[in-house]
Write a structure and sequence with these properties.
The protein has 115 residues and is an alpha+beta fold. The chain contains three helices and five strands; from the N terminus they run E-E-E-H-E-H-H-E.
Length: 115
């Protein structure tokens, strides 16, 4: 799990995002991976801002964001089902630190993601 702090004192919510990334010249993905899926928690005043911040952080890590799927804020997710205690802790940490947190990393192998 990694995170990057964001300087924005007006952040009001944390959003859950699934980001598919492609390779960059100096990324830290496994050498035989073609990309990865990243489960991220990101702060923002709205989901669009959380997506922008997440994409900026991932680009700075030399990853190439290809697709972002938003799963909503904590309140939105609670109405759709149960949020685990571990996930709730990560969301609260993200809010407290005003950060983008990559909570899960799944390498993709084969032709699924193009460089």
């Amino acid at each position: 799990m990694t995170y990057c702090e964001i300087d924005d004192p007006l952040v009001s919510d944390v959003f859950t995002l699934l980001v598919v990334v492609g390779r960059g010249p100096s990324d830290d993905l496994p050498s035989d991976a073609t990309g990865a899926e990243l489960l991220c928690y990101a702060t923002g005043n709205d989901e669009a801002e959380a997506v922008r911040e997440t994409v900026n952080v991932l680009r700075a890590a030399d990853l190439r964001p290809l697709d972002v799927t938003g799963y909503g804020s904590l309140a939105e997710r609670e109405t759709e089902g149960e949020v685990s205690d571990e996930e709730r802790d990560l969301i609260e940490r993200c809010r407290r630190e005003n950060a983008v947190i990559v909570a899960e990393f799944t390498p993709i192998y084969g032709e699924r993601v193009i460089h």
